[in-house]
Amino acid sequence: MYPGSLTDIKGIELGHAQGQSTGCTVIVPPKGNACGVDVRGGGPGTRETDLLRPVNMVEEVTALVLAGGSAYGLAAASGVMKALEEDGLGLDVGVGLVPIVPAAVIFDLAYGDPGERPQEAMGIEAYKNRSTGPVLQGSVGAGKGATVGKILGSASAMKGGIGSASLQKGDLQVAALVCVNALGDIFDGERGLQIAGPQKEGQMESTLDHLHILQSPQEAFANTNTTIGLVATNARFNKTQLTKLASMAHNGYARSIRPVHTMMDGDTIFALSCGDQKADLTYLGALAAQVMSRAIANAIYASNQ
Fold this sequence. Notes:
Elements: E1 13-18, E2 23-28, E3 34-39, E4 46-47, E5 64-67, H1 75-86, E6 91-92, E7 97-98, E8 103-105, H2 120-128, E9 147-148, E10 158-159, E11 161-169, E12 172-180, E13 185-188, E14 193-196, E15 199-200, E16 203-204, H3 210-213, E17 228-235, H4 239-256, E18 257-258, E19 268-277, H5 281-303
Parallel strand pairs: 5-8, 17-19
Antiparallel strand pairs: 1-2, 2-5, 3-19, 4-8, 6-7, 9-10, 11-12, 12-17, 13-14, 13-18, 15-16
Helix pairs in contact: 1-2, 4-5
C-alpha cells in the first residue's frame, strides 16, 4: 500500500460508522478552512454542493460527509449537523449556528440489505468516532458496501472501499480520501497494474475492451456506482482555486478507473485548504491527481486483504 492518510493534514479529524451493508464517513476540518468541489458523471447524489460554487457566498465548511445508501444516505449529514450544533460549531447567522455540511453518496443498495441506509444516528456515531489518527481503510465507513468492476454486472463485481494516502514535498502537504464504488476496473496507476475487475469463478478478468462491452445497453449495472472523495492541503487557497484543484484531482480518477465519469457514475471530489503554506496551483493539482490515484489503489488493497 502507499503511505500516508488524510489526517496527515494538521487539524483534520475523521470518523467512520457502518452497519452490515453500508456506512458513512465524517471529515471535520479545522476552522478557517476553505472548500471547493467538482461533480462529474451522470448520476450524482450530493448535498450543499451548489453552496460551494465560486460565485456563492460561503467559503468555509464545518464538516463533510461521504455515505452509502444512495440519496437516502444524505440523511446522515442531518445527524452531523445536529451534533455540530450541540458542540457550538457552524456558521453564525445571528440567531444561531448553521453547520455547513456538504455531502456526497454512493449507490450501494444492491450490496447486502437494501433497507439498511445511513441515517441521522449513523452520522452522529461517525462524528463521535472522529480522531486525528491514521485513517482506517478498506470495507469501513462509506466504503462498507462499495464494489467495483461492475461492467459485466454486479454479480461478478469485486469489493471496493475507503482508501487514503498523502504526499509531502518540503513543507507542502497534500492528501486524499476516496470511497471507490466504480462501474469500471481499477488500476494501480503508478505500477501499471490492473488490481480489480469483474470475476468469473473467483478469478479476476481483464475488461480492457470495455468500449466493445459498452456498445450495448447494460441493464445489470445501471445506477449502481459512483466514486466520491476529497483532497486536502496545508496550502492556502480560496474557494475558486480549490474548485480548480478538485477538477485536477479528477485526473487521479482517470488514471485509476476505466471507464470513469460515465452516465452510471456520480463521481465527486471536494478540495480543502487547511493551512497557510504557499504553493503553485498547477503543481499542487498534479500532486493531487497522483495522491488520489494512490488512495484509489489503497482502497482496493485494503478491502481485499
